[in-house]
Amino acid sequence: MTVLNIATGGELLRRWLSALAVALGLVAAVAGPALAHEEHGHPARIHEGSCAELGPVAFRLNGVGGSVDLDNAPVATPTAVNPDASYQMLISETTIDGTIEDLLASEHAVMIYESDEAMDAIACGNIGGALTGSTLVTGLAEAGVPGHIGFALFRSEGDQTVVLVALGHGLAPVSASGAPGEGLASDDDAAHHDTEGEHAATPEP
Questions:
Q1: Which of 21, 41, 52, 138 could form a disulfide with 28 if both were Cys (CB 3.0 to 4.6 A apart)?
Q2: Which region holds residue 41: left if phi is over 0, alpha if psi is between -120 and 50, else beta?
Q3: Strand segments (E) across the chain
Q4: Coil, strand, or helix at residue 131?
């Protein structure tokens, strides 16, 4: 599995990141290698089911903010822009088999985890949201570990879909209820399903 070549898909990536910055009402800085938590970044999965009731993993995505893909091959890392005055942003891009319509045919959710070592949920979003042209924008809310919000953008390319995940750190306050992530599947449930029913994203030809 490989991430789309950023050199060839750069224009699409720039459009998506510009839309994200406008939606958040801020100038987004994309994190470079020094800002990523680990070389694999935050693990990301598309699960069957919903954020409240996660099912098995349908697709594994490249780690958000990582410098290598799922096969440990290096990926191009965007440059941090104005990091001292703007929010940290982490991204991931993966191509998976299937169309947006396939994902919407039944419940699916995007879940982001803290790390490979600590599979604690940090953000989640049920696939849906706003469809603009051939791009579906899905919001990601903070989960068990507060402080992370973002977007997952899906764009069909023939029989495949490009999935871009953009995650902001420090953009969301701790939930007012004092119980962040209430209503989400437990981390134990997520870990249990992580190895079930997986399909690898398909490498680019």
A1: 21
A2: left
A3: 29-30, 42-49, 54-64, 88-97, 108-113, 121-126, 130-132, 135-142, 148-157, 160-169
A4: strand
